[in-house]
Amino acid sequence: MTRCAALVLTGLAVGCPGECRADIVAPPLEEAAALRAEGRFDEALDTLRTASREIKAAEGEDAPGLLPINDLAAEILIDRGDLMTAAALLEKTILAREQLVAAGGAEQAVALGASFLSLARLETTAKRLPAALAAGQRALLILDGASPRDAAALTRAETALQTATEEFDEMVGAGSDASIEARNEVAAVLTSLGMIQEAIAQRQKILVGLMQQREVDATAVFQATERLSRLMMVNGRAEEAIQVVETTLPTLGAATTPQAIAAQRLLGELYLAAGKLALAEASFAHVLDAVQKDAKPSPFVLASDRLRSLLVALRQGTVTRLPDWFEAAQKLLVRPGSGDMTAAMPGLVLAATVKQETGDPAGAAELLGRGLTLANAIKPPDGGLIAEFSGRLAAAQIAAGDAAKARKTAEPALPAADRSVGPGSAQAGFLRVALADALARSEAKVEAKVEAKVEAKVEAKSEAKSEAKSEAKSAAAALVTTACGRGLPRPDDTWEAMATGICDRVAAADGVSELREQYLAARARQFGANHAHVVSACGLFGAARLAAGDWAAAADFFQRALDLDSNDESPETAANLVLLARACQAAGEPTRALETAQRGLAAWEKVAGADHLGTLDAVDALVSAKLQAGDAEGITELLERLCATDAIDDPSRRAAHLVRLADLTVAQDKHRALDLLRKALQLPCWQDGFDRGAAASQRLAFTAALAAHAATAAGDSTTATQLLQRARRLVMESEDSTALLQRIERVAARGGRP
Questions:
Q1: Cα–Cα distance between 77 and 88 in angstroms, integer?
Q2: What is the DSSP letter of 569?
Q3: Do 614 and 571 form a contact (C-beta atoms < 8 A)?
């Protein structure tokens, strides 16, 4: 009742003069709504008829002010059971509102959606459930597109659809063809709008209905399983999807049937998304063996299955280069016949992913560009496939260092994806995030173009440059905001790390820290406030802020992650403790850093044992914290532990540990210190051709400076001079080289003792 009265008043405010609204319309609507609440339907309708006649006399038969009266009248007629009259009234009202919206009356969109909701209720009451579902879907789409969006109205529309599908199941039977078709349509609409949990619920009902049939249709069960599992996987629920497939797998027949093989392949993909590499390896090996035993296996299917196994091996580290067969598979996939283009698509995605895993983003972009060309050539066009390849291509182009090209890919693809698969789809979400990244990265080039065009005045040039910069930043921030407001996808941990990094960069560039909070709020809505994915996102933002030198913000995010999950038996908790210790140390909080580092080491030892890389990193963090806090107790033993292990494969870190130990022991044993320095300097990280970034070069420079201090103390002035010169060379090209050189000189002069 209250909702109808509110809609009535809103509609009249648009179409009726102030005096008419106050003196004629509002009291009758309120009176009719109150009478309806008391069940006095005839009196309520009489009140509305009187108000309707007065408006017609004042404004004519087509006055917009009549529409909200018709809305409430239709609801009362449905209450009373006069469905034919209500249907006629709603038909007239909907037609009038559609004309108003088409003429530019966007403010009527919410009211139009509400009219379709009334129609859905009418059709449900009349047991015309297919029509009710159609009206409910139409209401949902209209309300979603209204600006501003009415969250309460959207919830009512979703509830109306759920009610209609439940009643339809009762009428025709859950698991029947009609029920499955109806729920598939509803799930597709919900997915397109980013209402992922509701879509998952619909697909779960489909699968349950099929499984309850007297004779299980293996093909239908697998199709329902795959749709549900892929929806769950791309939205961060791979672990739950694994359970779904494991439950349905026994119903699909012998292990060699097409459905069982396809289910095993799907299970392998889910294991891979969940980071369960050993299980993924076993599943893909089983599938590959079954496919190879086929008398005439599809070369495209075979190539894809081999690529899946290769991808797992790359992530496990058991393969370090591409096998000989990869080039032949690549050639097959990029030139399929007209009838094989769809079959080639999964293989192209996999081949591109393999290229990215092996450090060849340009090669990945080339393959994905070919895939996009093929996707556009498929008839009839598959909007979802085109959107998927566009998003993947844009991300690969960014990884290859061509943000401008990525922007050209993503900008036209995003609105096309919104139209074809919906603004809340995973494909549209991927494109939004990629485009935001491209805009943020290409900002400098945009500024340069504006600067070249504007030459009249320095002031005009500066103003245009600032405007272009502001527009790019604002556009990127708006894209992230929209992505967070929709069904933000989460296919795996790797994508989440990339997406949080993009959000962090956009937030930092535009000075909008709220973007990070919006991202975390989106994850909390999707999974629950204390879910592991929310904890992970907090930790990722902390790592991004730590890398950016924003120590206080980094510490805050790590602390929030720990507050959400303080389980000492969780690797995530152990890692966040160590990172929090490093952030506190950088922020100048030695006491907190030391306490946190001790907790982090204890947590890692409990979770993974003494020789795990995480544990050794915690030892390193504790050494640093002790040095800063002036706590010399146990430092030598900790460094001896680090220098003795073979688990650390980063030569720069090994060199740092050896040098630090040398600097601590030189006063007691100069020969031991010189031996440690010699071992450190023999490591490959000092070679000119060694691959290292700017940050790694800076760390190595400080290691060299500390080594110079140790060599001086040991009486080897020649080595000390050479090391200090090397330290200076390592930071000469840095943007803040002056400050770095001053710090290096201090370390070389004073050392790193507590």
A1: 11
A2: T
A3: yes
* 607, 574 Cβ separation under 8 angstroms: yes
Separation CA 571–CA 612 (nearest Å): 11
Give the chain's end-to-end CA distance (angstroms, integer): 73
272/234 Cα distance (integer angstroms): 12
Q: How far apart are CA 351 and CA 353, in angstroms?
A: 5
240 burial (CB, 10 Å; 0-12 / 13-18 / 19+) is middle
- Measured CA to CA, the distance from residue 740 to residue 394 in angstroms comes to 36
Both tokens of 497, joined, read 């790390």
- Angle at which helix 571-586 crosses helix 590-608, to 10 degrees, equals 160
pLDDT tens, position by position, 580-611: 999 999 999 999 999 999 999 999 999 999 99
- In degrees and rounded to multiples of 5, residue 633 shows phi and psi of -65, 125
Region for 753 from its dihedrals, namely left if φ exceeds 0, alpha if ψ lies in -120 to 50, beta otherwise:
beta
Q: Decide if 71 contacts 111 (C-beta within 8 A).
A: yes
Write the pLDDT tens digit of every residue in 272-286: 999 999 999 999 999
Give the per-residue SS3 of 590-632: HHHHHHHHHHHHHHHHHHHCCCCHHHHHHHHHHHHHHHHHCCC
**Secondary structure letter of residue 490 according to DSSP:** B
Whether omega before 64 lies within 30 degrees of 0, making that bond cis, reads no
- The SS3 of residue 349 is helix
Q: Could you tell me the pTM of the whole model? A: 0.87
Which tokens belong to 356? Answer: 């990215």
Place of tokens 């790694």: 696
